[in-house]
Write a structure and sequence with these properties.
single chain, 386 residues, alpha+beta, Butyryl-Coa Dehydrogenase, subunit A, domain 1, Butyryl-CoA Dehydrogenase, subunit A, domain 2, Butyryl-CoA Dehydrogenase, subunit A, domain 3, 3 domains, four-stranded mixed sheet, four-stranded antiparallel sheet, 12 helices, acyl-CoA dehydrogenase activity, flavin adenine dinucleotide binding, Acyl-CoA_DH_CS
């Protein structure tokens, strides 16, 4: 396991150079307009960063989750928001690891070139939340098609994606021996689906994070869009979820460094009562504590990445990395806005924007309480609580 961030300096330098072309003013404008950073995502794609996890045989860079996490971290550390594009990174791993050779040949080169985007994953439902095995969206085989009926919620970037990975029940819960069985994953052509039975309703929210509620009414999907074996979708989707949580951890680490860099510079210059406010230990200690927590979370991120890239079980590490990093970035955000005082709430300082963005990760893609439950049961061996 490699803990030296400097070993990825070439990636960091490349992403930083690109991000420098899209400074804070760009992201501030996008946020104010509740828009999508189309030009920024296109630039990331053109320079190959969005194809990091695609094998070289399909036109990608053939890198691992470790390198992908560095890309996401640097976007956030530069003041951007990886939430606009991180879906393609973690959805990619599901397709690469579990898709058929025909699917990989047909789709991956187009994702690498930017001809297609795979930014969305449809798992969560309004009545089940994190209780994924209880999902009610069904996929019934009829001839050479699957017919989808149901509802999903908090499905992001649908308007800026061509494809979506969808989880649905192909065998009723009452008919399976294990509740994690009987679910399957499908590739959905979003534009075709919107013409044939899928309705998309945007959800306005406190962050400029495009997300939606989806309704499926007899949507037909070709059988060749089934990923892997029917009924094993929950197992496959965990690949994407572990990648997602690890990448989110890296993004939070990037946020944490952005906040500590920002507030350290500010309190070192801001003078009140004839002295820099950063000279006061009451200001120093919360910032120092947040920085320590970011550094500690970073180590767990590297461990989760190393296990994922080695094909080893990494559920506990991915969850713990996400928990630690989200907590650290939130503490750093609190310190940053507190010691900027009123200026922390002014749009031009970018603190309030980043403050809102990083708060999301206490709740999504999995809440901190659910991570604690996972660790209590699956790591510490305590009785199952639900």
């Amino acid at each position: 396991m490699n803990f030296l961030a400097s070993d990825y300096q070439d990636i960091r330098d490349g992403v930083r150079a690109l991000c420098a072309q899209y400074p804070a003013e760009y992201h501030r404008k996008i946020d104010a307009e509740r828009g999508y950073p189309e030009a920024f995502v296109d630039a990331l794609t053109r320079e190959g960063w969005m194809a990091a996890l695609i094998p070289e045989a399909y036109g990608g860079s053939g890198l691992g989750l470790t390198e992908a996490s560095v890309i996401m971290e640097e976007i956030n550390r530069a003041g951007g928001n990886s939430g606009a594009c991180h879906g393609q990174m973690y959805n990619m791993s599901t397709l690469v690891r579990h898709g058929s050779e025909e699917q990989r040949q047909r789709i991956l080169p187009k994702l690498a070139s930017g001809e297609l985007r795979l930014q969305s994953m449809g798992v969560t439902e309004p009545t089940t939340g994190t209780d994924t095995t209880k999902i009610k969206t069904t996929a019934v085989k009829r001839g050479d098609k699957y017919v989808i009926n149901g509802q999903k919620v908090w499905i992001s970037r649908v308007q800026h994606s061509d494809l979506m990975i969808l989880l649905a029940r192909t065998t009723p819960l009452a008919e399976v021996s294990k509740k994690s069985e009987g679910m399957s994953i499908f590739l959905v052509d979003i534009k075709e689906a919107m013409r044939g039975g899928m309705t998309v309703n945007p959800i306005a929210n406190m962050v400029n994070h495009e997300t939606n509620e989806l309704f499926f009414d007899n949507l037909e999907i070709p059988e060749e869009n089934l990923i892997g074996e029917e009924g094993q979708g929950f197992k496959y989707i965990l690949t994407g979820l572990n990648a997602e949580r690890t990448l989110i951890a890296a993004e939070c680490i990037g946020d944490g460094y952005w906040f500590t860099d920002k507030v350290t510079a500010y309190v070192s210059e801001r003078e009140v009562f004839g002295r820099p406010i950063g000279q006061n230990q009451g200001v120093q200690f919360p910032i120092a504590e947040a920085y320590i927590e970011v550094e500690a979370a970073n180590l767990m991120r590297w461990k989760a990445c190393a296990l994922f890239d080695a094909g080893q079980p990494c559920g506990a590490e991915a969850n713990m990395a996400k928990y630690l990093a989200a907590k650290a970035s939130w503490e750093a955000a609190n310190s940053c806005i507190q010691f900027h005082g009123g200026f922390g709430f002014a749009n031009e300082y970018d603190v309030e924007r980043k403050f809102r963005e990083t708060r999301l990760y206490q709740v999504a893609p999995i809440s901190t309480n659910l991570i604690l439950s996972y660790v209590a049961e699956h790591v510490l061996g305590m009785p199952r609580s639900f």
